[in-house]
Amino acid sequence: MANLKVDVDPAEAGFDAARLSRIDKHFDRYVENGRLPGWLAVVSRHGRIVHVGSGGYSDVEAGTPVETDTLWRIFSMTKPITSVAAMMLAEEGLLELDDPISRWLPEFASPRVYVKGSALAPLTEPAREPIRVWHLLTHTAGLTYGFHHGHPVDAIYRSAGFEWGTPPGLDLAACCAEWASLPLVFQPGAEWNYSVATDVLGRLVEVVSGLALDEFFASRIFTPLGMTDTGFVASSPSRLAALYVPSANGLARNDAFGRLGTSRPDCLSGGGGLVSSAADYWRFTEMLLRGGALDDVRLLSPRTVSLMASNHLPGHVDLEEYGRPLFAEMPFDGHGFGLGFSVLEDPVKARTLSSAGEFAGGGAASTAFWVDPDEDLTVGFYTQLLPSSTYRLRSQLRQLVYQALVD
Fold first, then answer.
1. Closest CA relative to residue 99, chosen from 137, 128, 142, 144
2. Of 22, 282, 289, 365, which is most buried, counting CB atoms within 10 Å of its CB?
3. pLDDT tens digits for 131-153?
């Protein structure tokens, strides 16, 4: 279990300690008025932790307070880890970004694309080009999520049992076979749509490496980085926070969905299945900030990380122009998308104090992280509130962090 504590005077890292305390006051108000069960935030600069704030409960009913070693379902913060895994294989020459994924996943050899019609009677046409590895990493493959509720193909996914999870008994290989049989929302590369693409990427990692996704993660990423509390099953069930949703009476516990992380799932979701701790994910983000290496462990080259953290949308447009703004987990104005992360192109257009070049991600239960290479900064935020669009926690946290940076 990695340690998580402040190890530098904030002033030495360019922060005003009194201003940093505004983070705690702000999110404690969310707890006091019943909007959040509990929360934890970590701010790090120049490789040193300058602030750890927390409040509230990991389990409201049991009265269990949030601790620095609380475990959290990180949902889509799994995606950057799967993307790193794929790029590690690319660095070994085992795949290229332009490779058709049907080279390893033949079920995707002849995808069809929605043209018009209802979910019950869609008209489709053949894809004009193959789905490539790059399409999966950038969410431009034409795949979708059933929970979007914005397109007839989303409804087709729901009818097939894919909304906020996968059908019982289907492993990752079987899920990919099902997704391959469903229409694409658009021609590969034509648009951006947040989707199961990273789950398919996880299956690609399995086939190319010859390892189950949990085995690859453990042996190639988590063990080398010392991420002892990260996996598809909580390392210590008693430390796993409960999951909540907003209700008319404040917060409602969601134990049905909260079962995620309590046992090995049928489908190892590279798009949203991991449980982690703030300390573990801090090590992962520090590895990215340091150009693919942490301490004496190197997972990726600096050039690979730089490529991942670049906007890959055509013409450097932002998601507002190229994407389908159906899911509040991702910002759109002023943000592009790289290989596994959102990428901030224009802070003014995004109306944020953050720096151009920041890359970031978040999870469905309102967790979030970002890496700011310009300021040599990483930030993580953890709670367990579904959905992530309930409150503007991420933009508020950015404002609170940067107003405290005074050098």
1. 137
2. 365
3. 999 999 999 999 999 999 999 99
